[in-house]
Write a structure and sequence with these properties.
Blueprint: E1 2-6, E2 13-15, H1 17-32, E3 37-44, E4 47-55, E5 61-64, E6 72-74, H2 75-86, E7 91-94, H3 98-105, H4 108-111, E8 118-120
Parallel strand pairs: 3-7
Antiparallel strand pairs: 1-2, 1-5, 3-4, 6-8
Helix pairs in contact: 1-2, 2-3
């Protein structure tokens, strides 16, 4: 499980490493551009309901991953999440179903497209 420390909040956000890899790429890209957005997640074992944070460049952000190697990310799924982050509702992820959504984005119909290649999360 990866951990996200945001601002002065003492309770970190814990999510699977690969899912956090997507969030890291999206957050880094948007914040580097000076763009703020909301990030909402649901379906974590210890948190019923949903949680939302407002991500903006002035608030400290730190990602800690269990794995020493960057995750392999699916480009089409990354683009879908980035499009979501650009919408008024912000980035919304269900921890229970994100892997199925990632797999659907990586379906054989997408595999033929060059844009469907894996992306390294760095």
């Amino acid at each position: 499980m990866a951990t996200l420390f945001y601002g002065s909040d003492v309770a970190p956000i814990s999510l699977p490493d690969r899912l956090m890899g997507y969030i890291k790429v999206i957050a880094s890209t948007k914040l580097r551009r000076g763009e703020s957005f909301t990030f909402t997640w649901t379906g974590t074992a210890g948190e019923p309901g949903r949680s939302t944070i407002w991500l903006q460049p002035a608030i400290p952000l730190r990602f800690v991953f269990d794995s020493p190697e960057p995750e392999q990310l699916v480009g089409d799924y990354l683009r879908a999440l980035a499009d979501q982050a650009n919408a008024a509702s912000g980035l919304v992820v269900d921890v229970r179903t994100w892997e199925a959504a990632e797999e659907a984005a990586h379906a054989p119909a997408h595999a033929a497209r060059a844009a469907g290649r894996a992306v390294r999360a760095a």
